Amino acid sequence: MTTEPPDGAHAPRPLDRRSPLPLWAQLFNDLRRRMEAGAFTEEFPAEHRLTGEYEVSRHTVREALRKLRADGLVIAERGRASRLDTRRIQQPLGSLYSLFRELEGQGVEQRSEVLRLARTADGTAAGHLGLVPDAPLVVLERLRLADGEPLAHDTAYLPAEIAEPLLAADFGHTSLYGELSRRCGVKVTGGCERIQPFLPDIRQAWLLGLADREPAFAIERLGRAGERPVEWRETVVRGDRFTFVAEWSDDSRAVALAPRASAPESTQAQAQAQAQAQALIPSS
């Protein structure tokens, strides 16, 4: 038997202007309370409605909404009304995983928009792969979509001598590692991955539908086939739609934490999460 919330549970409560707690934090707490009571299931109120309901400035509302987005409770995209984030993607750490398979396994429709698939040369990527700076590479750049919504911007570089057949593949609904195995006879067996907080550039924010200066996760990955590096990948993942989950025990491998250089005040959102995690976890 379902118990209906009492009358007024979904309604806003007045903010206390004499409280030492900032108005935006009080607003954030009250919106959380209303969410937990079952409010906003059909739509989340727009900024102008919240300013009227709570009699606060737009700046106060935006600070509260920024915190809701950072906590993964609300999705905000350009040109669309904000809404509750009822579906958060969980990605396990510490094992060989495929983003393609993980999304499909969680009942999420996965597809990609291929932005670039070509031969190229990139000195930085070649260096990570142990190649000379002008070595020919194959680059695959994709916008990864989950249930039709942007999730990640993904760019992978592979040595052309082994990855040339990938140029004929359709990556709209398939995995890189699957195609690499089928077309090239190369199986990724391990690697190293680094995850850190990141402020996307203008293009990445536009592709992912992020608000201005909204933080995300940056992932750098070196995939190996045996001992040979075969993939260097740079990925930006929406922090409001993606959660990394790790299981551990008293005999687990230790995770290396790399301290970051001090960040300027303009990147304070990043500085609050200054851990960079490394684990043996390649992804497709």
Keywords:
elongated, alpha+beta, disordered N terminus, 284 residues, two-stranded antiparallel ribbon, 9 helices, 30% strand
Secondary structure: elements and pairs:
Blueprint: H1 23-36, H2 47-54, H3 58-70, E1 74-77, E2 80-84, E3 89-92, H4 99-105, E4 110-120, H5 123-128, E5 137-146, E6 149-159, H6 160-163, H7 176-184, E7 190-198, H8 202-208, E8 216-225, E9 228-238, E10 242-245, E11 256-257, H9 268-271, E12 277-279
Helix pairs in contact: 1-3, 2-3
Describe it.
The N terminus and C terminus are likely disordered. This protein is 25% helix and 30% strand. The two termini are 43 Å apart. It contains nine helices and twelve strands. The strands form three sheets. An eight-stranded antiparallel beta sheet has the order 4-5-6-9-8-7-12-11. A two-stranded antiparallel sheet has the order 1-2. Strands 3-10 form a two-stranded parallel ribbon. With 284 residues, it is an alpha+beta fold. A hairpin with a 2-residue loop joins strand 8 and strand 9.
SSE class:
alpha+beta
In helices, the fraction of residues equals 25-40%
Gap between N and C termini, in Å? 43 Å
Order of helices and strands: HHHEEEHEHEEHHEHEEEEHE
Strand content: 25-35%
Average of the residue pLDDT scores: 78
Q: From the alpha-carbon coordinates, what is the Rg to the nearest angstrom?
A: 22 Å
Global geometry: elongated
